[in-house]
């Protein structure tokens, strides 16, 4: 592997490692449909997925922007507002997300569905962040 690709490969392999270690038992292919809506439980998977892929990066970016614009923080030398690409990597979240999932749900089925959504959302955030970093780094050159 070329040295410059190593961080990107790490972000893509991490969710596979996490799935193996999270103790998720996939008893039906329907478990992988995280966008499924049920009248009893709503759409747990969709909320978790978009929270990781949209909510966390948006929160990181807006908090950073607000701190810089209000004068509470200074933008590091050489940094640009392409920080959004790096903020997308903030959506990669296993430990606390899995912890909150275990606290929020008591039924093993719901806990497993939450874990799968966490892992898929983390994977999507990793891919999105890596792609945006590649796109923005090509524009700078």
Polypeptide structure, described:
The model has no long low-confidence stretch (mean pLDDT 81). Helix 1 packs antiparallel against helix 5, helix 2 crosses helix 5 and helix 4 packs antiparallel against helix 5. The protein has 141 residues and is mainly α. The chain is built from five helices and no strands.
List keywords for this structure.
single chain; 141 residues; mainly alpha; 5 helices
Task: Give me the secondary-structure topology.
Elements: H1 6-21, H2 44-70, H3 83-88, H4 95-104, H5 108-140
Helix pairs in contact: 1-5, 2-5, 4-5
What can be said about this structure in brief?
The protein is mainly α and 141 residues long. The protein is built from 5 helices and no strands.
Shape: globular
Low-confidence stretches: none
Main sheet makeup: none
Into which percent range does the helicity of residues fall? Answer: 55-70%
Number of H/I helices: 5
Overall SS class: mainly alpha
Q: What's the mean pLDDT score? A: 81
Which sequence of SSEs, written as H and E, runs from N to C? Answer: HHHHH
Strand content: under 5%
- Measured distance between first and last alpha carbons: 22 Å
Instruction: Give Rg in angstroms.
Output: 17 Å
Count of extended strands:
0
């Amino acid at each position: 592997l070329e040295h410059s690709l190593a961080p990107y490969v790490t972000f893509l392999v991490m969710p596979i490692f996490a799935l193996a270690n999270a103790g998720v038992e996939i008893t039906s292919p329907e478990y992988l449909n995280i966008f499924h809506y049920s009248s009893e439980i709503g759409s747990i998977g969709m909320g978790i997925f978009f929270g990781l892929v949209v909510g966390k990066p948006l929160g990181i970016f807006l908090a950073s922007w607000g701190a810089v614009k209000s004068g509470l923080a200074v933008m590091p030398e050489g940094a640009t507002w392409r920080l959004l690409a790096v903020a997308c990597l903030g959506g990669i979240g296993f430990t606390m997300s899995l912890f909150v999932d275990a606290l929020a749900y008591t039924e093993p089925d719901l806990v497993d569905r939450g874990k799968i959504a966490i892992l898929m959302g983390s994977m999507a955030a990793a891919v999105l962040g890596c792609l945006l970093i590649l796109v923005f780094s090509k524009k700078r050159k």
